[in-house]
């Protein structure tokens, strides 16, 4: 219902059964959209994970990289840069109680990253039992924000559990603007100073805005999860958006304690009775959909772990890892990922080069910087023109990021990934962009289409 176009791909939705390890089964909602532009019978499978913790991946489908984008009238418009142009994409609301997944445990001790990892792995195994045609096919995991914790833990569990390659043929992972380690106050202090200077306001006035963003500072148990100046985010007459400091924030209130996040359209759609019937939502599931679960956020954010060891282990297994950061994000700024990677020795031949993206007519534009670690198995990119969600704000770049991940998993070159991404773009639509995630000497060859 409410579709503004006729899809040319197959899709499935329903529930996957899993357990967090306590013995009780959980039912997680999933939505699988098969590929629209390559053969779905042979295309790789990509699992997309949103973060939070406690935010809906199905919400990510409808506002980030799915084939449908929910508008303010709760109608579904076509996404010209949908990731299912290049792959079959699976979205799972996890853990229990998130999005359309059925309510989770009342015991809050189960709300931790290890339990969520077991839950995600169990759901994935159930998926392969329901869709045996995907067994052994190339599989990738991608996501953003707190998925920077979920993804390396799930990837490690797949490898350590011996589930690949015959069943779960994991080929690579990617994380955008991820949280990978506990917050470091020095990172946010440097951002605070830069922002207050840029905005030209006094520190005393800066402090006066504390109450507007205390959601990430003072949780129900009164313990702070971030330093105070992380939370005193700027909101003067120009309404700075902490997820993209180059944009204004037009939301007066907070949606589930996430400021400036407009999810009205997708929330209305996923609470629509006809839409729920079409998606196979449990008719006894009376809880309204919300983009993020406050209880899960409050409980899980207090015990952020360091996953550098998991990244190193994945690299030791020759698993490509792509990390990227939109530099306009204040919530999880560039400094956090750079601080994590600063504990690794950069590749001897790796320089902090610029990468370029190009328009259709071969004009080049600097997209950010790039660097590699551990023999190129870990790659890092910055995106100068994006904030917290690169795939939402710069969908053309997000599509090329996906292609780079797919190419790395198959051992293909960056030039080949540019060609494949170009083939997936409908040049008669509004998507008149072609991006090349390449250094300058690659770009001149890769962009000659």
UniProtKB/TrEMBL annotation:
Entry EC number(s): 3.4.16.-
Gene Ontology BP annotations: proteolysis
EC main group: hydrolase
Leader sequence segment: none
Keywords, ordered alphabetically: Carboxypeptidase, Hydrolase, Protease
Gene Ontology MF term list: serine-type carboxypeptidase activity
Source taxon at top rank: Eukaryota
InterPro entries: AB_hydrolase_fold, Peptidase_S10, Ser_caboxypep_ser_AS
Family: Belongs to the peptidase S10 family.
Protein name: Carboxypeptidase
